[in-house]
Amino acid sequence: MTETATLGGGCFWCVEAAFEELSGVEDVTSGYAGGHTEDPSYREVCSGDTGHAEVVQVEYDEEELDYEDVLEVFFTVHDPTQLNRQGPDVGSQYRSIVLTHDEQQREIAEAYVEALDEEGGYDDDVVTEIEPLSTFYRAEEKHQNYFEKSLTADGNTNDAYCARNVQPKVEKVREKFEQKEKAQSD
What we know:
Elements: E1 2-9, H1 12-19, E2 25-33, H2 42-46, E3 53-61, H3 67-76, E4 85-86, E5 89-90, E6 96-100, H4 103-119, E7 129-132, E8 136-138, H5 146-150, H6 160-176
Parallel strand pairs: 6-7
Antiparallel strand pairs: 1-3, 1-6, 2-3, 2-8, 4-5
Helix pairs in contact: 1-6
């Protein structure tokens, strides 16, 4: 059965590319959520005035991945202790946020964040927002599969932002979640 998770952890290009690596992930869509502007554009979201965060919707096969697996990957590929920023990206549109689809997701996400804080794996407290998803707006087509589109024939990216920010997250997922990585033929 296919489930959906909606997550924001900085630039959606980074989060999308990381999830695309996993077996069980059927689709990842970049978009905007958590704000007040109806059907915003990338430019509007980047202004910081819409209230939206750059997010991804991850559709996954729950027989291969469960929601905790999705959260583990999400919290691995971004720093949940940074308020309104990730690396070079600054503003509320880059905040760490989990937008839940139902009560069960909310409970699991809250317990996951609580466990992260209790483990003390970070120097600072986790600032990830957890709130119900109201509306998801799909980002413009040029933002879908952005990292994949940036790759050259030899598998390297010709985009400096992707080389510095996306590629390391993809490599981290490949190393840490090797057992869940998609086969090359997928």
